[in-house]
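ok posting inputs for the FE2/S2 (inorganic) cluster job
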Amino acid sequence: MFHDQEIYEQELELIFRKSWLLVGHESQIPNVGDFFLSRMGEDQVILSRSKDGKANVFLNTCRHKGMRVCRYDEGNTKLFYCPYHAWSYDLNGDLKGVPESENYPESFNKKEWGLIKVAKVASFRGTIWATWNEEAPSLEDYLGDAKEGLWYGLGPWDGGDGEVEVYGGVQKWNIPCNWKFVSENSGGDPLHNISHMSTDLSKIGPREGVGRRDPFGELFLTATGNGHGLIFEKVPLAKPREHYQLSKITSEYFEDCWRRRIDRLGEKAGSPMVLANIFPNAGFHTQQPRVFLMAHPNGPRSCQAWRMFFVDKDAPQEAKDFLRPYYISYSGPGGMTEQDDMENWNYASEGARVRAAKDAPFSYVADSGSFKDPFIPGNVSKWWMTERNNVAFYHAWADRMGY
Ligand code: FES
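and the output
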């Protein structure tokens, strides 16, 4: 399952063609005509904002002879012109212009030759998702019990109704690993933290002194169904959630947000979601650094990782400027934590295809038990030494694959 081409092809059909997939964020296409070139599995898709205000998702494949109709990562346009023979499509993906159309037979109906649209598009707290599956449940049903944690995690720091925005460009790079290693990691793999020891001893965090982040409170894992894995944190309410000595304005902003969050959410404020993987490959890091991670499959031993960083839209500019270098020194191709992870994923993918090892099972059996928590959904496990979320991910994977 980590290296076989045939299994990989089945994954594209049975998992990536059937699931809801994260394709972008509302803040990337705020205006009519805005577009963002995204991916669903191996397929390149265009996410666009049409005149009716809707977000649309369609294949970036010309219906004439397959050329890409859009070759920019993002931008604003009225039409997508195919550079090959100049067919043009509007922001809904409908075919509008065909040069020399008088030479086409009467039976040629432009309405039948629009760009291929996904079956469904839906938004959740600013994130935009799409699926090719006509039979897919609603996005809300698909997210199930992951919804509430994700709702607050994807919202502003103060737990209110404000917005967040993708800040800066999208970092994209290829990793020679199977996409599932990335999903496992985002959705609940507590023991891998040991591999960040060297980063913890360096100084990339937003505080003074060594470290890569704010100290965590106590961490808890929960698998909420459909293969989704989430990690929550419990922190004392009395303690300001962020305090960055290196930037007074940033510190004050987050401390003020934390106070407002407690006023709004009460006890629940102390149990924020910090990490998640929404099956199959939508990763979220919702405490600093705040990041979306899409691990797009490129083959059984390769994936293309996309990191999109986000900040509160109404945060002071100094806070955004302060966070940006921190975010990219933590995550992404230049991020120290990410580089630790990539070493693991690269070599685990390589190790999994060694002939003598390939038919032997991996263990995935650690389980420290579970309990119910008033604020965290599902069966909750303490952070340390449990592979419950990974097991839930692979149960969902096996169900979809028909095993
Ligand atoms: Fe697009 Fe011919 S391939 S117009």
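notes: The chain has two domains: 1-20+140-403, 25-135. The longest strand covers residues 303-312.
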